[in-house]
Amino acid sequence: MLLYLLRHGIAEDHGTRSSDAERELTDLGRERARNVLLSAKKMKLAVPDLVIASPLIRAQQTAEIALETFAKNAQFETSDLITPTSDVIETMALIAERAKSFDRIMLVGHDPHLSTFGSALLGSSSIVMEMKKASLAKFEISRIDVPRMRGYLTALLPPRIGSL
Q: Which CATH number describes the domain made up of 2-163?
């Protein structure tokens, strides 16, 4: 099974909106998200069958960019299990359940959750990989069972990849 982790792009500053959940992507955030996804497409990375995004606006907007530029035919879901404070084990359970129907899944979320989750997939209880804003990580999942889900990091695209 293939799993992508995509962190949302740069968002408006804290306090810009009435709640953190309503913060939107900035123009630079949109551009970097688009660039990393276009780079994935140019690299001919496998396209996700399913994109699951956090309900927070900036993740939803990043998921829209993913669906437009990289995963045009993917199904789309929203899940509360990939917010900034989500539990890694609950996210593993979500992936294990969706893996019954989908071979290639993309999660669009936030830090610290995505860095913690990606590190857990590598077998670490501490953060050993950092998901910068608008970065994309690709994992080959080798063990699907929860809570011991494991994978191999096969690609990590930085947010400025399209502008290098």
A: 3.40.50.1240
